[in-house]
Amino acid sequence: CTPSLASIILLLVFQGKFTLLRDTRTDGSFLVHHFLSFYLRAGCKVCFVALLQSFSHYNIVAQKLGVSLTAAKERGQLIFLEGLKSCLDLLFGEEEQSGQPSPLQFLSEGASDLKALFDFVRTSLTPAGSDSWKGPVLLVDDLSVLLSLGAVPVAVLDFIHYCRVVVCSQLKGNIVVLVHSNEDSEDEENELVVNSLCHHSDLILWVEGLATGFCKDVHGQIKIIKRVSLELTAEKDLVQVYQYKIQDKNVTFFARGLSAAVL
Amino acid sequence: MPPAIGPLSPGRSSGTPAEATPRTLRPGPATLTCLLATGHLSPCPARVARDVQTTRPPIGQLVSPAALPLVERKGLDSSRRPLAAVSRQPAEMAAASAAGGAARGRGATSFQRKAAAGSRLAAVAGTRPSVRHGQLLLSSGLPSLDCVLGGGIAVGTLLLIEEDKYGLYSNLLFKYFLAEGVVCGHELFVASAKEHPDNILKELPAPLLDDTYRNELGEEGTAVKSEDFQDSMKIAWRYQNLPKMEASPTSTKFGHYYDVSKTMPPELFQSINWHSFYLPEELSLQPKMKTCNMNSAYARLLQSIQRIICQEGFDGSDPQKKQKNILRIGIQSLGSMLWGDDICSSDTPEDIHSLTKFLYVLRALLRKSLSACIITVPAHLIQNKAIMERVTNLSDMVVGLESFIGSERETNPLYKDYHGLVHVHQIPRLNSLICDVSDTKDLAFRLKRKLFTIERLHLPPDLSDTVSRTSKQDLAESAKLLSSGCGAMAIGKKHLDF
């Protein structure tokens, strides 16, 4: 299906950018599903590093949003790294490797660096001769898991930096990364990574649960921060706040206090 | 810029969003795109995707392969499924087809996809498909906990219980889970570093038969009524000869009740296949897998679980097995000192990644097999809260128990009927953007003489003549603490959102 006018605007304007998805006190994975289906529908080549859920989970949600991940994988548009499966292959698989080290090599080697994962991303997104896809996109869900698996924060930041150089600067593609954060979190390593990424992002989508508690009709609020200040034109960042409600096949956004239940 | 909102027409109920939104904002996958592209909420020219009513498959139907999307079945390539064949027109009430279309909730037409021959699974005992995400659900052994968790524990997921201070009630939940497995005929895997699994299995609560359960609730009235009913069956006289109540808990029923004061009779165990992992016995053997810097006890446990899953064919690797079964894994007090981990005993533990790595690999094993796991963790002993945050992120369902034993709340008249509070920290969103969050956030549990139940916390009415200031403050404090919700974990510090 043809992308709408808004998608065309977004794709033309937003190239070579780093988008950070951040959630606090709630689950921001609906944004990952949105971006995955959005970029696949727009005809971009997507490398999806899915560390936390299985392929069929994303496939089923993507079908609800109108995209088939299996079809995208078959025509080479989607390169899907299923972290859970490759972790099992690494730990319980046989010794013979097909020459290529597993992307999650850092698990068995004592967490030195994430070079193998970066090599995987680079080889997936570097365009082969016959590719006709639009700009490459790297999608990561989610980065905080790498810290739980033993990677040091500096290694994670280095990985993101290398990916930015290749994907954003050289290939003019986009990167979308999901992280979890919490205001009174005691996980200092995670906060370090999140703060550093916030400083370097071009767009931050910050999803929070409502401060007043649980609500059936408003599931949370989203802050869209456009980092205009990075362009050094002496302008401040543009911050917009909306509230949202997640439904079975879509997410509706509305201005604060104007949810459909209230109107 | 104010959004373009039209006035509501008279007579419209402010009910479902499907009615209210066409006037205000056009929903659709492009809405976030509009926000990012144009910077304001103008209605998009995108197609309106109306909410399609999900069809509800009848409980107990035969489970087709499509109802097990979390499990990758070998040899069954999902790309062969014809996606285009299902019409996208939003149908109001589709015919509930027995094929996977109904379980997916796609609002299919009456088109019935013929499943590949030989791949139809017989109904697995003790499970039922979820209407939300088409996943198979297991009972946790406690029907009230099943309600709280959105119907049950989905196959392939992990339930983490944060232990209460003395581990009494979490142990009870652990045993309920295993007892449910025995009654349903599932296979069990029990791992513990503290108690030998044989002893754990000897102490499982006995299942309550239907008629004795009714007596427990003190509802003798219903028994009397049923006798009258028997005499008066005029139209359905054929059914008079059928047995009135189930004499024994059958494995097709979902969710059973257990009597904590009695232990399970050994004859129920005879047909059950169970495996045990007792750490002191296992430590003498050599590990065979790469430990990848994990605590050796965890590494051995993972190796043992993986071996059982492969050998017994729970990951679909053995096509000869016609009758599928579920593996219920129970791990007791993970993270405690007995497992060789010092996160519970030291402020700066040596290796903070072992537990999280273990949970990640366990998650991978669960996702690719027909199994479900319950783990109890002594969270109150873990000093480094960062570890508990990471553990929560890596688990699917997290339930914390807080017992009143030894705390000031034991004597608080607000809680006189209950023995502790239940905090549901996380519910998973499986195969869907939303999850079945129950509206009740304030839950408490109590252990009556024979039954353990989780209920909505009701504050008793304030009937005292002179209401003292201290009791009012107690109420306010308790009310603040109770306002945590899963999904939106706000503590409710503020009164206004904006």
Can you characterise this structure?
The complex is a heterodimer of chains A (263) and B (498). With 263 residues, chain A is α/β, with parallel strands linked by helices. Helices cover 36% and strands 23% of the residues of chain A. In chain A, strand 8 and strand 9 form a beta hairpin. Chain A is globular and about 60 Å long. The N terminus of chain B is likely disordered. Chain B has 498 residues and is of the alpha/beta class. Chain B is globular. Chain B contains 13 helices and 14 strands. Chain B: It comes from Otus sunia (Oriental scops-owl).
What is the topology?
The complex is a heterodimer of chains A (263) and B (498).
Chain A: H1 5-13, E1 18-24, H2 29-41, E2 44-50, H3 55-64, H4 69-74, E3 78-82, H5 83-92, H6 115-125, E4 134-141, H7 144-148, H8 153-170, E5 174-180, H9 188-200, E6 203-208, E7 220-226, E8 238-246, E9 251-254
Chain B: H1 17-24, H2 31-38, H3 100-104, E1 127-129, E2 136-138, H4 143-148, E3 153-154, E4 158-162, H5 168-184, E5 187-192, H6 197-202, E6 205-207, H7 210-216, H8 220-231, E7 258-263, E8 274-278, H9 279-282, H10 296-311, E9 327-331, H11 354-367, E10 371-377, H12 385-394, E11 397-403, E12 420-426, E13 443-447, E14 452-456, H13 469-481
Parallel strand pairs in B: 4-10, 4-11, 5-8, 5-9, 9-10
Antiparallel strand pairs in B: 1-2, 2-3, 6-7, 11-12, 12-13, 13-14
Helix pairs in contact in B: 10-11, 11-12
Keywords (chain A): Cytoplasm, Nucleus, tRNA processing
Pathway (chain A): tRNA modification; 5-methoxycarbonylmethyl-2-thiouridine-tRNA biosynthesis
Pfam family, one (chain A): ELP6
